[in-house]
Amino acid sequence: MKSDRIRKTTPRRTVARKLAPEVPNDIPHVAVAAAPGIEPATYREMLRFMVLTRELEDRIERKLYRQGKIVGGVYVGRGQEAIGVASCIQTEPEDVILPSHRDMGAFLIRGMSPRRILAQYMGRVDGYTRGRDGNMHMGDLDRGVIPFVSMLGDNVPVAAGVGIAFRNRKKPHVVLCYFGDGATSRGDWHEGMNLACVQKAPIVFICNNNQYAYSTPLDFQMAVKNVAQRALAYGIPGEIVDGNDVLAVHEAVRRAIDRARSGFGPTLIECKTFRMTGHSAHDDAGYVPEVLFKEWELKDPISRYRQYLVEHGILRQDEIEAMQTDAVREIDGAVEWAEKSPYPEPEDCLNGVYSEK
Amino acid sequence: MLTKTQLHDLYYWLLLNRTLEDRIVSLRRAGEIPGAVQTSRGQEAVSVGTSYALEKDDIVAPLLRNTGSLLVRGFKPEEILAQYMGKGTSPTRGRDCALRMGDLKRGVVASSSSLGSLVPVVAGIALASRMRRLGIVALTYIGDGGSETSDFHEGLNLAAVQKVPMVLVLEENGWAFSTPVSAHAASTDFLARAHAYGVAGFEVDGNDVVEVYETTRRAAEHARNGGGPALIVAHTMRTGGDSGPHDAWFVPKEAVERWKSRDPLRVYEQYLDDGGLVAAEERSRIAEQVRAEVDAAAALAGSRLLPDGIQALGGVYHEI
Amino acid sequence: MSQTTYLEAIRQGIWEEMERDERVFILGEDVGRYGGAFKVSAGMLERFGPERVLDTPISESAIVGAAIGAAYMGLRPIAEMQFIDFISCAFDQITNFAAKSRYRWGAGVPIVIRGPSGGGVHGGPFHSQNPEMYFVHTPGLKVVSPSTAYDAKGLIKAAIRDEDPVIYLEHKFLYRRVKEELPAEDYIVPIGKAAIRRPGTGMTVLTYGAMVYLALEAAAELVKEGIDLEVIDLRSLLPLDKETVLESVKKNSKVFILHEDTRTGGIAGEISAVICEEVFEYLDGPVLRITAPDTPVPYSPPLEEFFLPKVSDVMNTARRLASY
């Protein structure tokens, strides 16, 4: 039983072009420069995780889903990989993240495994929710990953609570809380932001502004041009960064983490990016002007970063190719493992509602 | 420039607001009012100045401290007292209390207790105004505390995106019950919120009724002419406590004293004296009139009957 | 004559009302340019324009709140919840603002809040819920749940024309699986009236939504065992058609209730109490219930299959009741 696929029809496409407003493109074109304080290993690790994320999500969306091997919906962060990776790579083991569905790289960096993620997508017992929930609705408290729910923005009050707990217990840990542009319209987002900020909780708020919430473009979502502007209401810094520039994201998050750890409270970092796929695997995104896909393809975060690494002699071309091969091999193995994981026992439906102590 | 009638009216409404609420407090003490009482003492200029600035067909949705708005828009003191007393003739037939009353014919929408919930509702009213080319403005209020609620955010954001003719008056009175602004608001710069939502922002001394009136006129015009919503931040102070004159033990005494010296009635009287606009004798006459009016209202409301128990039933659904 | 799907029937119903009454308009996420996540509003933006088909931010509470405000101004809004699960985000506006408005100050709120409910599509916990009882429990609201294409169209029209707030629960599993020929002329299905889908003289099952088909499937089997099952489709959960229900119980003396909603606090308990209070003397056996268990809706197929009531559940319950 598949969720319903949307078929393209020509009339709708034409209307979409007519009605789709011009997407504002005021992304700061920051020259990618060498960022201070990044260790050589980190440069490599960031590419590795971005490549692994891309390979894993491509496998899910473009292969497994089409082969009917995925249960339910698929939501990937194609084109947005720099955001989750460059931010989460800076977390310490005791830090906590509350990712969105577009931050697969962050899940991987925290140590969640591709094979269990695939098992999750396939509804198998070895998935992170034992088959009880699907796609990116997963987490692991031991690895400091708190799963989100479909009611976007709900994770912000929760993040506030985690941050307040850290502060109350005088822990030096930080919280990274992720959401998209659309989630910032929600009331829970507002209440969570205000609480986190008035309490000066040690949180970094990271928004992946990928310009669309399902079919809703930014100017139907808010009357301001930049999500960062919403920070004015909370008395915190609101930064805009090129979300497809892994080093720019890294730098902005580094400063925000320092602020948070030093007790100065949260920062809102708006990462300008673009959703290079539909809202979900069954959405052909016919409402997005084709020209935007072409424009953002040129700003692909992985291509840009590879080019940078080669130009600056940080990695060689053959090392980069090897990384790709490794990623493919790793995902191959993960798929094989996940496919062998059994489905849960039907009666397991009744377990885990309450504490069993 | 305000006309003589307008100057006179503003004084009348301010005094009526004050006198009526004083009476409500004493009736509560005397056991005539079963429920809680929350007055707008010290904030009257906001209610009166804003609602007086609206046009006849505009819509107002008052919140818990906007007695003055109800009065200006045509609710009689007797109706408000009957409501507090829970009488069967109250605007809600005894079914709701405090200021939660409304009448679409008088352009007043009733609030619920959930702070912030009026913001999306008023955004919807303004949306209808735009859709039907009614040319009316919809105005409502929110407190500093209420501005932290989810509905405030969703309502103002929706209003901003849709550019509807809504005016939102944020009464910053320093306290959300016992919580000072610094403890509940991440940013005490409320005017900056206007930029956060992409709407026009106005800041005003909430205890200066003339300034409030004039600012509301400008804000309403902006909204009415397609400029989108306007946020008016009115700084004021609640000198009557949260729910009673002695219920302010957590507010530093100096703050209360400072604001009492800026009492809106006193500020306006000074303004009238400075300009030789409405003389003291005239003002005394108005005071007499107001006192008599409130006395009569109290007597009338007091004489009304409580509803029969059975009147709790019915009116839940539309009856043909 | 062509067959109209359940989904298309809803779309037609809304479309016709929008043609008929210019006060009717839609607001919600992705309802305009996308035509709705499930395409219920496909083509409407082009036909009726962006003022009457409003794409909103992600703001369920403001969607409902704005609908209330617009209704005060004489409009007839239809607020869409992209998945009915998100209705929880608007809980306060619905239960405290809309539901109590007429009672408190005489101002009616003629809004419709609609969205796809129910499971069986691998939607997981947040895309498969049946939230009816939060709202059946709230005086001032009406709650309906059509199971056929005919009823889907008739009830959405009735809901739009109703003067009170109506929660209209579509079942997503039925969207494209259920179809029939619909009359060309305008018709409504009244709110508050149940429908007897299959008359029977042995015992009665009360049900609604997608479960109606489960009951009918079971009935076809049970008749071979000599159990003639009367299947009543409630259609309206609030107000409930007590008359039809009680008449059937008096006739058959045995009744069980079937719903996809979870057990505790599900409407089966409420109806059971009504039956006990009003027609106890007519009963020849207990009022039994078939419901989902008290868990969130799970995602993986074997778990979800376990969760949802099955034909065998209906068969076994009927046999058990027959033994009294």
Structural Rg of chain C: 19 Å
CATH topology of the largest domain in chain C: Rossmann fold
**Poorly predicted sequence stretches spanning 5 or more consecutive residues of chain B:** none
Total number of domains of chain B = 1
Radius of gyration of chain B: 19 Å
Largest interface, with counts of residues having CB < 8 Å to the other chain, equals: A-C, 52 and 50 residues
Q: Briefly, what CATH class of chain B?
A: Alpha Beta
Helix content of chain C: 25-40%
What is the mean predicted local confidence, pLDDT of chain B? 94
Order of helices and strands of chain B: HHEHHHEHEEEHHEHEHHH
By CATH, the topology of chain B is Rossmann fold
- Beta content of chain C: 15-25%
Known CATH architecture of chain B: 3-Layer(aba) Sandwich
Structural class of chain B: alpha/beta
Shape of chain B: globular
Number of H/I helices of chain B? 12
- In round numbers, the mean pLDDT of chain C is 97
Key features?
A: alpha/beta, Rossmann fold, 7 strands, globular, disordered N terminus, C: alpha/beta, 7-stranded mixed beta sheet
Would you mind describing this structure in some detail?
The complex is a heterotrimer of chains A (357), B (320) and C (324). In chain A, helix 2 (40-64) runs antiparallel to helix 10 (301-311), helix 2 crosses helix 11 (317-340) and helix 5 packs across helix 11. Chain A has a single domain (40-335), classed as Thiamin diphosphate (ThDP)-binding fold, Pyr/PP domains (Rossmann fold, 3-Layer(aba) Sandwich). Chain A is an alpha/beta fold. Chain A is 40% helix and 9% strand. Chain B has twelve helices and seven strands. In chain B, the strands form two sheets. A five-stranded parallel beta sheet of chain B has the order 1-2-3-7-6, with helices on both faces. In chain B, strand 4 and strand 5 form a beta hairpin. Chain B is globular and about 50 Å long. Chain B starts with a helix and ends in a 17-residue tail after the last helix. The mean pLDDT of chain B is 94. Chain C has two domains: 4-180, Rossmann fold (3-Layer(aba) Sandwich), CATH 3.40.50; 195-322, Rossmann fold (3-Layer(aba) Sandwich), CATH 3.40.50. Chain C has eleven helices and 14 strands. Chain C is of the alpha/beta class and 324 residues long. In chain C, the strands form three sheets. Chain C has a seven-stranded mixed beta sheet, with helices on both faces. A five-stranded mixed beta sheet of chain C has the order 9-11-10-13-14, sandwiched between helices. Helices cover 37% and strands 19% of the residues of chain C. The chains are: A alpha/beta (357), B alpha/beta (320), C alpha/beta (324). Chains in contact: A-B, A-C, B-C. At the A-C interface, helix 1 of A face helix 3 and helix 10 of C.
